[in-house]
Design brief:
By secondary structure, the protein is mainly beta. Helix content is 0%, strand content 54%. It has a four-stranded antiparallel sheet with strand order 3-2-1-28, with no helix packed on it. It has a four-stranded antiparallel sheet with strand order 4-5-6-7, with no helix packed on it. Strand 12 and strand 13 form a beta hairpin.
Length: 350
Amino acid sequence: MRAYIGTYTHNTASEGIYLCDLNPHTGELAIVGAAPRVENPSYLALHPNGRTLFACGEQTAGAGLATALRIDADSGALSLLNQESTLGPGPCHVSVDHAGRMVMVANYNGGSLAVFPVLSTGALGPASDFYQLTGSGPHPQRQERAHAHSIWPDPSQNWALACDLGSDRVLVYGLDRTNAQLRPARSPHVRVEPGSGPRHLAFHPNQRWVYLLNEIRSAVTLFDWHADRGLLVEVEHVPALPADFEGSNSAADIHLTPNGRFLYASNRGQDALAIFAIDQIRGKLTLRGYQPTGGKHPRNFCIDATGRWLLVANMHSDSIVTFRLDAATGGLTPTGAVLNVPSPSCILLA
């Protein structure tokens, strides 16, 4: 199985995007190549046809870049197709709609969203839509203005949900694939508890529940998702940290097992994954415990399609650690497999 690793290239020896092989029997990762150098490719997305990889180049000053790379069908090697301006600084998340016709980018520093058409070659056209977000929150340093942190297409293929850490909102947009544009929904956003800081989200396989990870408060918010109307309705808000935890922490990433029975959230500071069981009737969460990630600052993690392996990118210890996932209990066991790579920020299994 192929895996692509996005990294931070500033002040590191990183080559950018690494191509790896994942051993399906042991969960071990091995580097087999690297892409033409892309600056700070901190997040990656795969075209549905598997022939193009998209990356956001996280520039902190000036506009960032969205990059399209061709994937060689035989080797998985990457070659540069083109790059387009994201029209804002600090792009930190990229996604592609399920039809593969539009790519969406969240500019964190700029507090904005940019959309690009995907051309027949797999390359990106110039930005076809742009939204400058506004608003703020109670945290004086983190929420002084809008900070778009991610944007996600929903499973119905009709909507996209964007997380604004700065204003404590999740914004809902309809997808106009013909023009590669976003249209605000009739209920254009939902607010979460002030000071929460929405970062990433994940859809349950039943497509009825959305789980939002809040970075500042280190908490998970459950929503009922009504895809017929593009409507989010909050159900519960639960902490992802132990009540007695002392020190600073910021939550980073969230994923569900393919069977929809367990949810995991990464904590940077505690340097552990929170493990939750999901009630299959209502979607509510029950904390099962915490698993140390075997490194520092777990920015990103992923679960393979079989639900057997969970891989964590520990950015500040330059390592990716593999865990065996117990499908019956949700428990995680370190396999001993560790891949050393500079400043890993995103793991994409192809």
